[in-house]
UniProtKB/TrEMBL annotation:
<dbReference type="InterPro" id="IPR017871">
    <property type="entry name" value="ABC_transporter-like_CS"/>
</dbReference>
<dbReference type="InterPro" id="IPR003593">
    <property type="entry name" value="AAA+_ATPase"/>
</dbReference>
<dbReference type="InterPro" id="IPR039421">
    <property type="entry name" value="Type_1_exporter"/>
</dbReference>
<feature type="transmembrane region" description="Helical">
    <location>
        <begin position="363"/>
        <end position="384"/>
    </location>
</feature>
<protein>
    <recommendedName>
        <fullName>ABC transmembrane type-1 domain-containing protein</fullName>
    </recommendedName>
</protein>
<keyword id="KW-0812">Transmembrane</keyword>
<feature type="transmembrane region" description="Helical">
    <location>
        <begin position="326"/>
        <end position="351"/>
    </location>
</feature>
<feature type="transmembrane region" description="Helical">
    <location>
        <begin position="245"/>
        <end position="264"/>
    </location>
</feature>
<dbReference type="Pfam" id="PF00005">
    <property type="entry name" value="ABC_tran"/>
</dbReference>
<keyword id="KW-1133">Transmembrane helix</keyword>
<keyword id="KW-0067">ATP-binding</keyword>
<dbReference type="Pfam" id="PF00664">
    <property type="entry name" value="ABC_membrane"/>
</dbReference>
<feature type="domain" description="ABC transmembrane type-1">
    <location>
        <begin position="102"/>
        <end position="386"/>
    </location>
</feature>
<dbReference type="InterPro" id="IPR003439">
    <property type="entry name" value="ABC_transporter-like_ATP-bd"/>
</dbReference>
<dbReference type="InterPro" id="IPR027417">
    <property type="entry name" value="P-loop_NTPase"/>
</dbReference>
<feature type="domain" description="ABC transporter">
    <location>
        <begin position="420"/>
        <end position="660"/>
    </location>
</feature>
<dbReference type="InterPro" id="IPR036640">
    <property type="entry name" value="ABC1_TM_sf"/>
</dbReference>
Amino acid sequence: MLHLCGKKLLGARAPHLICSVRGRAESANRWLLTSVFNPTVSAGRANVKTVVASASRYMSVKSASPATISAAKVQISRSKVSKNELRRIFSLAKPESWRLTGAILLLFVSSSISMAVPFALGKVIDLIYTTDTATMNSNINMVCGILLAIFTIGGICNFGRVYLMNMASQRITRNLREKVFRSIMIQETAFFDHNKTGELVNRLSTDTSVVSACVTTNISDGLRSLIMIGTGVSMMVYLSPILALVSLCVVPPVMIIAVFYGRYIRRMTTKTQDALADATQVAEERIGNIRTVKTFNKEEAEIKKYQEKMATVLDLASRQSLAMGLFYGMTGFSGNAIALIVLYTGGVMVSDNSLTVGSLASFLLYAAYIGVSISGISSFYTELNKGLGASTRLWELMDRQPVIPYSGGLIPPRDASGEIEFKSVSFSYPNRPEHLVLDDMNLYLKPGTVTAIVGSSGSGKTTLSYLLLGLHRPKTGAISLDSFRIEDLNVSWLRGAIGTVSQEPVLFSGTIRDNVLYGAPDGVQVGDDQVFEALKEANAFKFVTSDLPHGLDTFVGERGIMLSGGQKQRIAIARALIKNPQILLLDEATSALDAESEHLVHEALEKIMKGRTVLTIAHRLSTIKNADQIAVLDQGKVAEIGTYDTLMASELGVFRNLIKHQAFQQT
Ligand SMILES: Nc1ncnc2c1ncn2[C@@H]1O[C@H](COP(=O)(O)OP(=O)(O)OP(=O)(O)O)[C@@H](O)[C@H]1O
């Protein structure tokens, strides 16, 4: 991939550059490979120096700090607009080609009609000046009748054009959002450690609509302006070549200024969108955790923080507004200047009879139309650059290949038996590569047995379950399930074989039924009787059917906010059970539930462990005592393993020490 992309992007210089890149950092992150070296994203846009500079900066730190990534991204996005980039953004419009073609045809008709008006008016004026009253009246009646009919057609065409364009725009936005959302969903967990939720939501909501407007309504408006300028100029040349030459001398300097302006706007849009994403991130996180904000009495502090973020956005937007104001002012002035030049020179020509009054009037109207159209073109150019700025971010997201493949992989012929082995596993989180959470760790789980994992806080217990679920990959060593390496397995199959109940389970807004069925494999029909069965096993049947107002149809609120901690736990247990997994990953709740809830949750957990391979992060003494084996995690390794009695027998053992100092729940 690297070689291919390198060749495409860098041509003959590729091997040298690839080698130097490799030499600089072996662990070049996939983001760089997919985003920077991906020809579809970067070819043409990023010149070789820019890419290598970004790559070096990126690799000079061992891990990808978000600031470095965004610096590299901004540097790339500052480069010139390439044909590829334009081609790519316009390819979004392809599925809507018939709607857009229809809209453009209607646009041609309505614009032609608009552009015939000055010519017709000129003719009417000449008629007034050159014919007798009777002939003039009948001619004017006839011309006005024809014009009314033509204007009606123009109105209908405009309606059709706007409708079709907007429909196309909405559909492109939808397609784009679906693709971006899919792209976000399939990324590996580590991706979300350095890509904030608010930022991603902003890409999904704002950037997509900016990009789709850029290739639809903006194109329509730009095309309209272009047609009007093209026709206007032709008509001006037809009416008076000399006058046309004099009046159009303003255009070249305006064009040159427009190029610089466009680049500036594009850069500013990227920055503004970044700042906006940052503000959205703050808002999203605080609103999502409003209880914590209120508990700590931080409403005012959060409002201030948001205001600061918005001040940055406003500052960037005001710089953008200043540039826009200057540019629009300049183009408006140019339009008026054209009109003035035409009026002056035309007046002289009429006085020496080289131009009729009607032609001068037509010419003036065309000049005014062109003036308006030039400002139309400038706003088209502004929007196009905004769209390109926003699209850079979207391509980065859409082109990113997840480090852990989302599909493919081995699907074993039989259901999992639940034999699990961690062999010399070392692991560190990608954003903290220097901190080895697991270091050459070994652990064997016999099918159908319960293994309790204990260890001090931060010893890597939860990390172990993430690795088993294939959410992260070990740096070295291997984890196997039924003697298949889990990284070779299809992730859906793997996660389908494992039921999980975490310490603080998250439910989704929806009904109890929706939440239990969330655990069922996609496409498998699960009836209410199976849902009830799972609820019974999870000790949740009674409270669902008799305490909740609408039974299975009761809404649980956002994140299950309408349920108690113990109720949420039991619904989560039912959710884990609905697919009847062979393996269970349990993280016992440390938060104090009331005695009855605690008993019900605990009893449910005991029940569901039977006959399954269970890896439980234990916080209760009884779970530890009943486990077939206890693995004590310490310094990234399994320091001790055995039954409760054997481990307690060792006077100076880590386990015994842990039991002495860590508060395990006694119930
Ligand atoms: N996403 C992450 N990025 C970087 N480091 C992480 C991440 N998640 C956890 N860690 C670090 O990994 C180490 C192990 O964390 P883990 O959550 O597995 O510990 P634990 O044993 O489950 O702790 P506890 O009992 O407190 O829940 C800790 O030092 C933690 O700071």
